[in-house]
Every structure is written in structure tokens, then in C-alpha cells.
């Protein structure tokens, strides 16, 4: 069990909610940082009702001032951030040649620069205190590519490379940095994609499921288990690593 402070961006729902709940169950004091404050507050209430400690914090990771304000509030209410999970993200599915620069900028601002902003705000304190865990949520799309997700794949590939470099820079400071890459995960976002694909949603989900050697999609708790591992004290000699959580869909 841990009593450390963990900040989870996009922690109110989907994979982020699973991560928030798992860390709280592990004894972390969790700051659920999300643009949807109402949902974040409900998730925090549920965690507290189950014996955990959590607060909801409004954050827009595309805005540096918002990020800094959120980190300051967490410090005031829970204490300095010792574990950060950069989970917040956004995507839309379309062919690359159908995208435009506004779309590119939105993808990169949320999925890549958002993590840069948050890490830039919390890592100096980790270095000063001699302890920190940076866990960036990538994607198997960033490892092997994914149809209709060219720009998102590029952003997540950037997260993987960034995390490795950050890990090298802080390796002697008591701070680790690792990436967790989910494969196909049963979340509201995936269901929305299936519903809007123009095909039968159940067939889309079924096709994804059949492609996974374990014959099921991941659920949020599967991803959360990997995050929990990297967040723990036992992972102190593991840094710069990229862990795929995909049921065997990708193995390289």
C-alpha cells in the first residue's frame, strides 16, 4: 500500500477512471484531473465512498496556465505530486488525406503537448524531492500504426520517444519514466467509433475481438494494472520502458 500522491489526467472516465480507481485501491491519494469536472467529481465521490482518498481537479491540458493551476491545487489539497499518469487524450478516425492542419494541431496539442505541459509542471518537484514516477499512456497505434489514426499514431509514437529521453535525463534523480501502450480497449470512445463507422457496431467490435489472441478486448482495469506496477516502489529500477497491454495483439 502507498500513501503517495498521484495525479491522473483524463482520470474521470474510460481508461483514466480505471487507473484512478486502481491507484486509490492501492492506497494512493488520487487527484482526478479532467476537463469534465462534473464526471471527475462523481468518480472522486465513488472512490471516497469505497474507502479511498481522491479529489477532482479541473484541468485543460492544452493550456499551460490551467495545468499549473491544477498542479498547485493538488499540492495544496493532497501534497506534492509524486506519481503522474498522463492519460488524457483525444482522437477521431479518418484517413490522413482527409485531415487538415486544424485537426493535426488538435491531436498534437492534446495527445503530445498535453503530456509535455504536465510533465514540465511536475517533474522539477520530483527531482527536488528525489522521487517520482512518470507514467505516460501511449498506444499500440504509436508502436505499430493503426488504420485511420495516422496523426494520433504519430503523436503516440512521439510520447514513446519522449518518455525514453526523459527517463535518461532524470535517471540519477530518483525519477522513473515509462510508457503504457493499450491495445484495443472496451471504452465509451471505442464504442462511439464502432457506432459511427457506418458498419454494424457489433460486427466491428467482434472483428477487433477476433484479432486479439486472447479473444477479448482489454478493459480499463487491465491498463490500470500496468500503471499500478510502474507506480509502485518495486519498479524503481525500471525506466524508459514501453509496455504493451494488448492481449498479445502486438508482440514486438
Describe the model:
- The chain has 252 residues and is of the alpha/beta class.
- 49% of the residues lie in helices and 15% in strands.
- The chain is built from ten helices and seven strands.
- It has helices spanning 14-25, 37-49, 64-77, 101-111, 113-129, 141-144, 150-170, 188-195, 201-211, 220-231; strands at 5-9, 29-34, 53-58, 83-86, 132-137, 175-182, 242-245.
- Strand 2 (29-34), helix 2 (37-49) and strand 3 form a beta-alpha-beta unit.
- Helix 1 packs across helix 10 and helix 8 (188-195) packs across helix 9.
- The mean pLDDT is 95.
Key features?
single chain; 252 residues; alpha/beta; Rossmann fold; 2 domains; 7-stranded parallel β-sheet; 7 strands
In the CATH hierarchy, the architecture of the largest domain is 3-Layer(aba) Sandwich
How far apart lie the N and C ends?
Answer: 33 Å
Major β-sheet, in short? Answer: 7 strands, parallel
The helix tally amounts to 10
Radius of gyration over all CA atoms, rounded: 17 Å
Top CATH class of the largest domain: Alpha Beta
Helix content: 40-55%
User: Strand-and-helix sequence, N→C?
Assistant: EHEHEHEHHEHHEHHHE
Strand percentage, roughly? 15-25%
How would you concisely characterize the structure shown here?
With 252 residues, the chain is of the alpha/beta class.
What does the secondary structure layout of this molecule look like, with pairings?
Blueprint: E1 5-9, H1 14-25, E2 29-34, H2 37-49, E3 53-58, H3 64-77, E4 83-86, H4 101-111, H5 113-129, E5 132-137, H6 141-144, H7 150-170, E6 175-182, H8 188-195, H9 201-211, H10 220-231, E7 242-245
Parallel strand pairs: 1-2, 1-4, 2-3, 4-5, 5-6, 6-7
Helix pairs in contact: 1-10, 3-5, 4-7, 8-9
Amino acid at each position: 500500500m502507498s500513501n503517495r500522491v498521484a495525479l491522473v489526467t483524463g482520470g474521470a472516465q474510460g481508461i483514466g477512471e480505471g487507473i484512478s480507481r486502481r491507484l486509490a485501491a492501492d492506497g494512493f491519494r488520487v487527484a482526478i484531473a479532467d476537463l469534465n469536472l462534473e464526471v471527475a467529481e462523481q468518480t472522486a465521490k465513488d472512490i471516497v465512498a469505497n474507502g479511498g482518498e481522491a479529489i477532482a481537479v479541473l484541468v485543460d491540458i492544452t493550456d499551460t496556465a490551467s495545468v499549473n493551476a491544477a498542479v498547485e491545487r493538488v499540492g495544496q489539497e493532497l501534497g506534492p505530486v509524486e506519481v503522474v499518469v498522463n492519460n488524457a487524450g483525444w482522437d477521431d478516425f479518418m484517413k490522413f488525406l482527409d485531415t487538415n492542419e486544424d485537426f493535426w494541431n488538435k491531436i498534437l496539442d492534446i495527445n503530445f503537448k498535453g503530456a509535455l505541459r504536465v510533465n514540465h509542471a511536475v517533474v522539477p518537484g520530483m527531482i527536488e524531492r528525489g522521487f517520482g514516477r512518470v507514467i505516460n499512456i501511449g498506444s499500440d497505434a504509436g508502436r505499430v500504426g493503426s488504420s485511420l489514426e495516422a496523426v494520433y499514431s504519430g503523436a503516440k509514437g512521439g510520447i514513446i520517444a519522449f518518455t525514453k529521453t526523459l527517463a535518461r535525463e532524470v535517471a540519477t534523480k530518483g525519477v522513473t519514466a515509462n510508457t503504457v501502450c493499450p491495445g484495443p480497449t472496451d471504452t465509451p470512445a471505442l464504442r462511439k467509433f464502432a457506432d459511427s463507422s457506418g458498419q454494424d457496431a457489433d460486427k466491428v467490435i467482434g472483428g477487433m475481438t477476433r484479432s486479439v489472441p486472447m479473444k477479448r478486448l482489454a478493459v480499463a482495469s487491465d491498463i490500470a494494472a500496468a500503471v499500478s506496477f510502474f507506480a509502485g516502489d518495486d519498479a524503481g529500477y525500471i525506466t524508459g520502458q514501453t509496455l504493451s497491454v494488448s492481449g498479445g495483439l502486438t508482440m514486438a
